[in-house]
Amino acid sequence: MRTKLLTMLTFFGVLCANAQTTYNLNWFTGIGPNVDLTIETGDTVIWTWTNPNHTVENNPGNSVETFSSGFLGPVGSTFSHTFTVIGANDYLCSIHGTASMSGTITVTSNLGVDESELKIFNIVSNPATDMLVIELPQSINNGQLSIHDLQGKSIHSLPFNEKQSISINVSDFNVGLYLISIESGSQKQTQRFIKN
Fold it and tell me: Please, which of 29, 79, 114, 135 could form a disulfide with 69 given CB 3.0 to 4.6 Å?
């Protein structure tokens, strides 16, 4: 009985440690090339048809994984794929081609966020829908907060001084995963947050 319980607890611990993220992409004619994401192994991407008659499939020879939705016509159709292999996955709609509907899903083992770093802030509302609330357990002088999307584009930046908490309105952010960094002097910490 103890062995079974220990095995179950170990399995549960592994599941919790390897939390997965789901990314939602609208899929429509004219979305253009470069519909790119960088995700981690075990994450899932869901494409949703917002206009009719498409496919989602890997670009043969330019993808480490093979996936295909087949032809799906109706608006609201969805296709999902869970990525398990590290590397780049070029994908496209075979009906509309790379110039109109294509991108790359890059799968990494880790986004480079060192979870063992000294924690200088905590995200209270994660995932966030309207307000992102950050608690600073110690008063930080001359701090800089920055938020980036997974392509490295700066979304928000805020200098601050001697605050215990920061609230940021994220209601206009696109749904997805973001990286938030706080830096002060030699201290820097980066964490992930999800916008619902």
Answer: 79
